[in-house]
Design brief:
Helicase, Ruva Protein, domain 3, binds magnesium ion, 16 helices, Rossmann fold, binds adenosine-5'-triphosphate
């Protein structure tokens, strides 16, 4: 069918034609913001899920809804080599300026800008050409100690007071939050804790890999009382059918039931893969009905393309010992895998696995859902490794 009219959207953060299976999270976020606006206590949210399940898409939708309901939001993506101060300060400047669009600036907003100016100076945040509150009197003793755990709470409280003075809620949204260091995560938790104790209207909605509950618990013991970790998972079979069927119908086409069943089998309901399969099947179909045969042909194309690009790119970044580690994980029929099983398969002691394990966690390939357990961060990665383990082993033998 016409590729230009193809409704599917495989990609990173690309809005799906139909956002299915996320109603409970959307409702919970609505309650969080409603309670925050009413100065009632509510747990902040960190969405957790594997690569490609739709965390970014969901954050974008949550931001759209938050702004529509009159909140003032910022959405930033954390990166490995960027500090939390650098990530948040320019975005909070925008929020504060948004709270004072007219010449009349409330005292609380003015104070927010003064505290932000201190914070920027203290943490040497690069602001490009813009200046912050240069014409305001200095304010000492706020966000100027150099200790992030003391200064970030000052800044959040000042911003939240500014929001309260404008009868709104500031929503701090951070994607890929697993890239924060332990210190930064601890400072963020202290800041949220202080804001909550004072009943101020500022909330955090973030997203990251499933290591987050453990990371947050290690950073601050009270993390589980401040946060909830809604799981963004694969779609079930009925949801997968809706994610495929609704957009097709809206574009004047339809999937045969057995065609959708096969896509569910192949993708296990992982949203990114559902979009890839839907898109390829659409392009291959010759008429407006997408058949089992179309999906069979699409599967060959998509699997080949994913193996060559999506999976291979990640795998080729690894050292030989990291690859052997992942092959041993993939050989296990159940996930998560116990570290002891990997050691047994590789015929080494568990303590010898430390460096490869740490490097794979650092590279975002695996995570530890619980003590002594390991799992892949990318869905279907184990299957890819099993398909290609023999090629790799052969190549390594030839190199030796
Ligand atoms: N609820 C959904 N229904 C259907 N498709 C979806 C849904 N959520 C996301 N998608 C599709 O899945 C793909 C991945 O989405 P997204 O980039 O948001 O995932 P992610 O979890 O942020 O991945 P990563 O961890 O790699 O950043 C996109 O192509 C998007 O259109
Ligand atoms: Mg994402």
């Amino acid at each position: 069918m016409d590729a230009i009219a193809n409704p599917f959207s495989p990609g990173a953060g690309s809005k799906p034609p139909e956002l299915v299976g996320r109603d409970a999270i959307l409702d919970d976020a609505n309650i969080l913001l409603g309670r925050t606006r009413a100065h009632r206590s509510a747990k902040n949210m960190i969405l957790i899920g594997l690569r490609g399940v739709g965390k970014t898409v969901l954050l974008n939708e949550l931001q759209r809804r938050a702004d529509k309901s009159g909140c003032c939001s910022l959405l930033e993506e954390a990166r490995e080599n960027q500090s939390l101060a650098q990530l948040l300060a320019p975005a909070l400047r925008k929020v504060l300026l948004q709270l004072s669009p007219t010449a009349h600036v409330s005292d609380a907003v003015r104070c927010g800008l003064q505290v932000l100016r201190n914070f920027i100076g203290t943490f040497r945040v690069q602001m490009g050409d813009v200046s912050v509150a240069m014409n305001l009197a200095p304010l000492t003793g706020q966000a100027d100690s150099g200790d992030l755990e003391a200064d970030l709470p000052d800044l959040f409280i000042a911003v939240a007071n500014a929001a309260a003075s404008c009868n709104t809620v500031v929503v701090v949204m951070v994607d890929e939050i697993q890239y924060l260091s332990e210190n930064e995560l601890a400072a963020l938790l202290v800041a949220l804790h202080k804001v909550q104790q004072q009943g101020l209207p500022l909330a955090l909605i973030a997203a990251g890999l499933p290591v987050l509950p453990a990371m947050a618990g290690e950073a601050k013991s009270y993390a589980e009382r401040l946060l909830v970790f809604p799981e963004v998972g694969p779609l079930n079979e009925a949801e997968t059918a809706r994610a495929l069927g609704e957009p097709a119908r809206a574009a004047g086409a339809e999937f045969k039931h057995e065609a959708m069943e096969l896509i569910y089998q192949q993708t296990q309901g992982y949203p990114y893969f559902v979009q890839e399969w839907g898109s390829a099947a659409w392009n291959i179909a010759s008429g407006s009905v997408i058949t089992l045969d179309d999906v069979n042909r699409a599967s060959e194309l998509v699997r080949g393309a994913l193996d060559r690009n999506f999976f291979r790119v990640r795998f080729d970044r690894l050292t030989d010992s990291e690859k052997r580690f992942l092959e041993a994980m993939a050989a296990s029929p159940i996930s998560p895998v116990r570290t002891g099983q990997v050691a047994e398969k590789l015929k080494v002691r568990v303590s010898n696995l430390g460096p490869a394990r740490a490097a794979l966690i650092n590279k975002g390939m695996i995570y530890s859902p619980a003590h002594g357990e390991l799992a892949f961060t990318v869905p279907l990665f184990g299957e890819f490794i099993l398909r290609h383990a023999s090629d790799g082993a052969h190549a390594r033998r030839t190199r030796l």
